[in-house]
Amino acid sequence: MKKNKFAVKALAAASLIAALLAGGSAVAAQAADEPLIGLTFDDGPSPQRTAFVLDVLKQKGVKATFFLQGSNAQQYPDLVRRIKAEGHVIGNHSWDHANFPELSQSNQKQQIDRTNSAISAVTGEKPTLMRFPFGNSTSYALNYIKSIGMTGGILWRWHIGQPGDFECPGAAGVQRYVLSEAAPGAIILLHDAEDVLACPSSQWTYLASSIDALRARGYEFGVVAPSATANPLNEGSPAVVVAPAGG
Ligand SMILES: [Zn+2]
């Protein structure tokens, strides 16, 4: 095992040197060694906030994961297109934020299918990740998503339980929440629609400052990907945070 590890390190060093010699992606090669945090934005897209979030992520060179409501995806296809074009991952967050345990099986299926259709109509790709509204899944829905090749429910790290962005704690409060839940491989729950739209717009400066603060602590940013095993760090989510495609 140790020998393998050394071989991998040597390989990484060699490719870093090769990248440096080529004047290419030395930064990307280095970033692969840093612990990853997965920022996730739920409930959108919304005309009020999604473009702002995308602008900040672009300025900071961060890729994230967006769990979209199908009804919003259908209404704001240009924002869905932009999320996809800028290299973020798109997941399914139901059609209209229904609480699955209260729905009939056929309505649960419809919430999932309609959303996949609305997203793939714009992006050409069916989402593979499912995050249930309120984190509330049912055994029917979990079996159904598995049967159509999806993974979920994707939860998030909720270790400390500081007020989240949807509770309007202000910019410093959201940053405190983000930093308190930060850990290598943590999935962080944030929003770009619904409840957060009622928060003062001054709260939104948290995003740029939290990204800077996480980088100062040595983190880089990844996207959520399916995993065969439940991750205890993120409340048992069958998911991992991975480096974005293309570095
Ligand atoms: Zn939600």
Provide a short characterization of the protein structure.
This protein is of the alpha/beta class and 247 residues long.
Comma- or semicolon-separated keywords:
8 strands, 42% helix, alpha/beta, binds zinc ion, 17% strand
Can you give a write-up of this model?
42% of the residues lie in helices and 17% in strands. With 247 residues, it is of the alpha/beta class. It has a single domain (5-242), classed as Glycoside hydrolase/deacetylase (TIM Barrel, Alpha-Beta Barrel), CATH 3.20.20. The longest helix is centred in the first third of the chain and has 20 residues, at 2-21. The radius of gyration is 18 Å and the shape is globular. Zinc ion binds next to loops. Zinc ion binds at residues 42-43, 93, 97, 133.
**Number of DSSP E strands:** 8
**What share of the residues does DSSP label as strand, in percent?**
15-25%
CATH superfamily: Glycoside hydrolase/deacetylase
As residue ranges, the low-confidence spans are 1-31
Q: What value does the Rg take, in angstroms?
A: 18 Å
Order of helices and strands: HHEHEHHEHEHEHEHEE
Tally of structural domains: 1
CATH fold name, please? TIM Barrel
State the secondary-structure class: alpha/beta
Largest sheet: 6 strands, mixed
Q: Judging by the overall fold, what is the CATH architecture?
A: Alpha-Beta Barrel
- Ligands bound, unique: zinc ion
What is the class in the CATH system? Alpha Beta
